[in-house]
Specification:
- With 130 residues, the protein is α+β, with helices and mostly antiparallel strands.
- It has one domain: minor pseudopilin epsh fold (3-Layer(bab) Sandwich), CATH 3.55.40.
- Strand 1 and strand 2 form a beta hairpin.
- It is globular and about 40 Å long.
Length: 130
Amino acid sequence: ATAIRNNAGGAWNHAFFFQIMTAANTTDSALPAVGSSLRTAVETTFGNFSNFATLFQTAGNNQFGSGWAWLVVKADGSLAITSTPNQDNPLQKQASVQGIPILGLDVWEHSYYLQYYNVRTSYTVRWFNV
């Protein structure tokens, strides 16, 4: 069961991750690139995009070892930021916060080591420029 969870989770997480990635953003904030309903939900939940970005980066930076940071829509329709270890994700029953992922950040070293070495915080900050 663990091997299936790791392999299936890895396939799903990475397919999702690469699907949400786009060309470099030329504005000061990624927020204008999102739809108005998501923008409103982010601003209502987190105050503004800057607060959201800080909380999202912190979730990724504080994930011990390999894993993911997530922005999810919970069953009640609210937004939440969470993180998961390894190849787990918020769709799985063992997740501390369950929900439908709408943004995911890969914080495995393979996603940033060649450019940022072991400085994950530089990666999570710069990631918002993509």
